Amino acid sequence: MDAKAKVFQICKKAKDASRDFSVVSTEKKNALLRAIASALESDSDKIISANRKDLASARENGVPDHMLDRLMLNEARISGICDSLRALVLLTDPVGSGELFTRPNGLKIACTRVPLGVVAIIYEARPNVTVDAAALCLKTGNATVLRGGKEAANTNLCLIEIMRTCIENAGLCPDMLGFIGPELGYEGADALMQARGLVDVLIPRGSKRLISAVVEKSSVPVIETGAGNCHLYVDGSADLDMAVKVAINAKCSRPAVCNAIETMLVHASVAEDFLPKFASAVAQKHSLEIRGCEKTCAILKGISPATEEDFETEYDDYILAVKVVSSLDEAIAHINKYNTGHSEAIITNDRYAADRFKSLVDAAAVYVNASTRFTDGGEFGFGAEIGISTQKLHARGPMGLYALTTQKYIIEGNGQVR
Amino acid sequence: MDAKAKVFQICKKAKDASRDFSVVSTEKKNALLRAIASALESDSDKIISANRKDLASARENGVPDHMLDRLMLNEARISGICDSLRALVLLTDPVGSGELFTRPNGLKIACTRVPLGVVAIIYEARPNVTVDAAALCLKTGNATVLRGGKEAANTNLCLIEIMRTCIENAGLCPDMLGFIGPELGYEGADALMQARGLVDVLIPRGSKRLISAVVEKSSVPVIETGAGNCHLYVDGSADLDMAVKVAINAKCSRPAVCNAIETMLVHASVAEDFLPKFASAVAQKHSLEIRGCEKTCAILKGISPATEEDFETEYDDYILAVKVVSSLDEAIAHINKYNTGHSEAIITNDRYAADRFKSLVDAAAVYVNASTRFTDGGEFGFGAEIGISTQKLHARGPMGLYALTTQKYIIEGNGQVR
């Protein structure tokens, strides 16, 4: 059997298992999540030893340090994963909720939340995602097919085995948690993108390159997540101290994440005051490379010029592009040209500017006088997150449990005809 | 300029116009809808004469009668279109509605409905869709790009011109209603499917072939609509008189529409009673061709046998496939194998069977003791409908105004950082 046939078989089994699982009670799903948490804790030695093998090969293959860090599991991290599982138990299950209305002809129509069916996730070498993603899908009654980065192969296989055993012990079909092993290579990933009719939604989690490849190739419906070319605009009416504080936070608190800013736009009327203030404040704590437009370079001597490419780039690093703009509308136009629909912020004391920015900037999250770093399921109070959607269909912004469900109209009558 | 460049230019202009239009008040949008209704009425002679040209060429080109009927506009039909426009005025505009919550750190988060941006629709030679679709998009603050069937070219151009003039008279940019003319051919349609970033969603309306082609080729997010391989299952506990009445309605009241049934499943325990009863009742009013499984053929002598292909086919005609099943679960499995996720019905007096059918059948609308023909925005009380979604993401079932919007998180703070 070739890679494609194997993947389709895994997806078909998940699809079949998803039917019965879709009607399992919240109580039973929560018990399963608790059982998985306990099993991961008691098997933590086994997990850590599988993870050590992965780390050793990754080091041999020259995987960079920051990726090794994402790959690494230890007691504390496993315990963190189990805490998340137990927190997930406490969240409300959206499945079965909905609205009921009666039509004049007596038809009772219930618009009910139901699981999507089979959720597939393609992600990189982050073993915590293996458990997190499976758990979010479990909680919402979905079957899951996971395809993780090859560097985490041993760890993932160990985690999947533990979870499948728990599923089986709960009297459910373990095929509802499918895993596309690294032996199936890129063909395995490609097959998953072609499993239309077997997979209900495919969520890529990881780099921009991974996400673009999935969007390009997939015939399965995709939810795009994560690409974040985010901006902060310092308006002419801004409280400049607030602007400095928010800009430093939005850029430097964690530059590698998608909700960090990449470009700062500054109104010409405050640029000469603000830019030196910002540059000296940020230099006290961080080594930030600033690349500026012509006007910025004239104010902050010695920095490199920003090119068109800079404005298009999600640096994910301690680099910030800066552009001086002559109006609010120029800032909005720049953002709508270059942004990826993630998070955008304005610092202003002008009610009109705030309203115009909120209305016209096209993004999942638009901030007035706060840092873009808050775009996150936890920070929004959703408790858990499968990703941050940068698309407009289905889900936009941090996706909680609700985004893993769809609706079904259930209509009861007593023989009505039209 | 080639077809692709022309289409991209139309889409780009629509995208630019969509920004300002997204914040236009409901009052102003309603006034525009009323103005369009009046203009269509006063220009009805012009519209009808353009339509006559289309009808004449269509007849010359051998377009079949049922398509000529869909293409035809007369005073009564124009007046019907204008009535729909005025009914649309009365519906609640979802834009601007939403939820507001405050986080412990003081951030105020509003999750607000906003327009999708640019909605493109590819459809066949039905000029009423030109006005309906544009109006639904207008009401929800979206720009629209339409690509209608070439047979309706003159009618569409006339309708578009009237609507664009009304938009301009309202002080808005007419480019928010774009039209891909028939001179751009299939290349024009293909270009629209590739306008990722310029078009926010593409909705194909029409035949299964059109919809499949769009789903296959499009890199723009698509909402699939309309394909309806629907079933009626007559359970062993069914009230057989009700079953006869509902089956005849679901098949014969309008066979060409997507919510009509194509296959009827009958429990073995009632097949011998029910099938002759149904066959003789339906024969009194309709000339229905029944194609049956082996057991059905043994009960209803002289009918043709149903093949695998029959169970896969959306006949859209006075043809019905019939299969006798030995259990509820066999019926559910058959439906989940062959259906297109549209509308499915069970006739039963057994609470357990009803619940199991409702839970396990995977479709947008699942009926107990009622006809599938009710799956419709008007029948559900939504007042207007852009199509019936058979997909699970974003919208499922009849899509009203809400489905033409997305959400935007608007977060207000006073300098919060993370």
Description:
- Two copies of one chain form a homodimer.
- Chain A has 15 helices and 16 strands.
- With 418 residues, chain A is α/β, with parallel strands linked by helices.
- Chain A folds into two domains: 3-224 and 393-412, Aldehyde Dehydrogenase, Chain A, domain 1; 230-378, Aldehyde Dehydrogenase, Chain A, domain 2 (3-Layer(aba) Sandwich), CATH 3.40.309.10.
- The N and C termini of chain A lie far apart (50 Å).
- In chain A, 54% of the residues are buried.
- At the A-B interface, helix 10, helix 15, strand 13 and strand 16 of A face helix 10, helix 15, strand 13 and strand 16 of B.
Short descriptors:
homodimer, 418 residues, alpha/beta, Aldehyde Dehydrogenase, Chain A, domain 1, Aldehyde Dehydrogenase, Chain A, domain 2, 2 domains, four-stranded parallel β-sheet
